[in-house]
Amino acid sequence: MFFSDSRQHFFNPLTGKYRELVAECLRLLYQRLYTDLRDYGHAMNREQLVDIFKEAIARAPILDADVSDPDDTSEGRFKTQRDLASFIINRLIENGWLEKQVDETSLQSSYGFSRMGRLFTQPFADNDANQFRTRNRNTRNTRNSLQAFYDQGEINDLLDAYEYSERIISDFTDVIAELEERKRQLVREVESRQLIQQASDEFFDFMETVFKPDLEVRLSADSVEKYRDQISDIVTKIRRKRKYGLGDAETAAKDWRAVMEIRLRKALPQKVVPGISLLETLLQTIDSRLKNACDIMLPALRRALNTFTQRADIIIRQLSYINSRGQDDLMDIYRSLGNLTAEQQDQVLLEQGEAIASIQIGFIDPAQIQLRAPRNIQVVRSMLDEDRALDAEAQKALFVQQALDKAFILQSSSLRDYVHIALVQKGQINSSELQAKNMQELLNLSHAIEVGAAANLSSRYRFAITQNADWLHAQPLVNNDKYFKQRDEFVISLIDDGVEHE
Predict the structure, then answer these.
(1) Quick check: helix, strand or coil at residue 123?
(2) Whose CB has fewer CB within 10 Å in the chain, the N or C terminal residue?
(3) Mean pLDDT value across residues 176-181
(4) DSSP letter string over 169-184?
């Protein structure tokens, strides 16, 4: 039984004038215990619980008492928020929402939700929560989980598919209920002349941000009709799969379905019914849910969609009519004439007739009307913009950029001269022996290997770069010198081909 032990009057705290306070206290406590607002390093003591409830009491209003019994003072009146928070805590503990636990070692008390208290508080917390949750992928998730179960034989994938298939039906129900609620809300707001603009704005905002994107995916990418055949094929393959072929000799010789049945019975002993296959029950349930979603829920969603759009069309027409009436004075003129006597009406009409007697009224000959294609007028911008002087920040940035470009520019002629000076003594030099006295020579040192591919001005002399084969397969030979942290070692030679051209 549910209403037993401490839960005999489980919902009693949610009645009376403090019911909104209790709901807000439960919602805030749930966020502090089970969301990212929780301080996981400490247990919840009574003082912390009182502070949380005081914060919730400051947020929520006190509702009016039941008019059928205005003299009922069983809930009492409290001078301070602390007294009211203590009253709510005691009431929630007495009725099974909260639990008080005492540490036998330190004799310190901690407070938390009971199991049922947590389950029934979760809807309060989820009502206003902006969760990162997909609303329309459950059909694809069902297909993917069943495929993973068929390929890997993991029963958790089958249980996930079972849960996702249940959400397919609940998602359809949620969308239909949301459409009905939006329709009723729109009708109520339109009936109040003060909320016409707000009702129309909220309606179009709902259509653009929620209705259209969600329905597009639900009726196309995640359509149950689209994936129904794929899911049915996977269920058929699972039912026809034979030898398991894994594990020890005894397990490998068993039927694949028998192995899955044994695992399911071990994982869900409370669901075991003698003589009935648990695996087949789950597969039949998934298959029937897909069939119900296609045959019942999808047509119901389309009917609700048609009803919603028809009602929205009627309301939009009504809004247009009301707005047009508010901007037209013709109805006011008719009303004012209706309040006059017949003699006064004739007098007013005669006066207006004399005022418009000079107006000539004629009819347009339809044969003379010709529709002409509109001309596209090309606009030519003939004005010239004046050059604006650069401000101080732009001039500073331009100067810095030019200085950097000038400092780090590298010319092939300076690179050849740098290497030539190093080679003038011996005709060849190791890269580790190259020195740098200034920034320009440091840049030349880092690009010294490029002289091997540089175009030489002389046709008799050329540069050659050589490197031992052992150096190619080892770590960089030069480490932590005064120029670089790591660099390769190679030999630069000046080659004389001995051929001169005129």
Answers:
(1) helix
(2) C
(3) 78
(4) HHHHHHHHHHHHHHHH
Residue 501 confidence (pLDDT): 42
Q: How far apart are alpha carbons 146 and 139 in whole angstroms?
A: 11
**Element (H or E) spanning 479, and its range?**
strand 478-479
- Across residues 347-372, what is the average pLDDT? 78
User: What gap in Å lies between CA 24 and CA 29, rounded to an integer?
Assistant: 8
| Overall average pLDDT of the 294-322 stretch | 77
Give the Å distances, CA to CA, from 464 to 101, 370, 424, 467, 494.
84, 85, 15, 10, 6
Q: How many of the other CB atoms lie within 10 Å of CB of 159?
A: 16
Handedness of CA 52, 54, 55, 59 (dihedral sign): positive
Note the pLDDT tens digit of each residue in 107-161.
Answer: 778 888 888 888 888 888 776 654 444 555 788 889 999 999 988 888 899 999 9
Helix 155-191 / helix 196-206 crossing angle, nearest 10 deg = 160
C-alpha separations of 99 from 11, 31, 83, 90, 502 in Å: 16, 17, 19, 10, 105
User: Which comes out higher in pLDDT, residue 427 or 226?
Assistant: 226
What does DSSP assign to residue 370? -
Residue 150 phi, psi (nearest 5): -65, -40
Beta strands of 365-441 (E only): which ranges?
A: 428-430
65 touches 17 (CB < 8 A):
yes
Give the integer Cα–Cα distance in Å for 239 and 233.
Answer: 10
Average pLDDT across the chain, whole number: 75
Do 183 and 166 contact (CB within 8 A), yes or no?
A: no
Give the residue among 81, 101, 96 at the shortest CA–CA distance from 26: 96
Judge contact between 10 and 2, C-beta under 8 A: yes
What is the token pair recorded at 306? 């048609």
CA distances from residue 199 to 183, 192, 335 in whole angstroms, order as listed? 11, 10, 29
Cβ atoms of 500 and 426 within 8 Å: the answer is: no
For residues 420 and 462, is the Cβ–Cβ distance under 8 A? no
Residue 459 has a pLDDT of 56
